[in-house]
């Protein structure tokens, strides 16, 4: 099971040919199960340039599996801890939302497909975060 980050959706929608986008296309071609979070849904929809694009994206993304925090209070506190653990190691995570996405991936035992350096930093600090930046089907080392 895979969680597709906003960074990969954007690359794919722009036609960018990079390893994460190729990995995503491979998941689609192989009917591999994947989904998104509410925040990823929002971020992708925010990037729609036209009303028509927004409607098409909303329809397509709305049909996907949505993963949510298992227990919001516990999950958001754990996401805050991810951020703190990185800061304690002098690693700055640029987006606290990435900590929430990472926490959801961990809770649901999903492999996060991304093109975002924050997740590489998080994975170094939190080894239970399984990531794939397009370099194969196995969790990659950041």
Task: Characterize the structure shown.
It is a single chain. By secondary structure, the protein is an alpha/beta fold. It has one domain (1-130): 5'-nuclease (Rossmann fold). It contains seven helices and five strands, in the order βααβααβααβαβ. It has a five-stranded parallel β-sheet with strand order 3-2-1-4-5, with helices on both faces. The protein is globular, with a radius of gyration of 15 Å. Residues 137-142 have low confidence and may be disordered.
Number of helices: 7
Strand content: 5-15%
What is the correct CATH architecture? 3-Layer(aba) Sandwich
User: Separation of termini?
Assistant: 20 Å
Q: What's the CATH first level?
A: Alpha Beta
Q: Strand arrangement, largest sheet?
A: 3-2-1-4-5
How many individual domains? 1
Instruction: Tell me roughly what share of residues is in helical segments.
Output: 55-70%
Biggest pleated sheet: 5 strands, parallel
Q: Name the average pLDDT.
A: 93
Strand runs, count:
5
Q: What labels describe this entry?
A:
7 helices, alpha/beta, Rossmann fold, globular, 142 residues, disordered C terminus
Secondary-structure blueprint:
Layout: E1 2-4, H1 6-14, H2 19-29, E2 34-37, H3 38-46, H4 51-62, E3 65-67, H5 72-88, H6 96-107, E4 111-113, H7 117-125, E5 130-132
Parallel strand pairs: 1-2, 1-4, 2-3, 4-5
Concise overview:
By secondary structure, the protein is α/β, with parallel strands linked by helices.
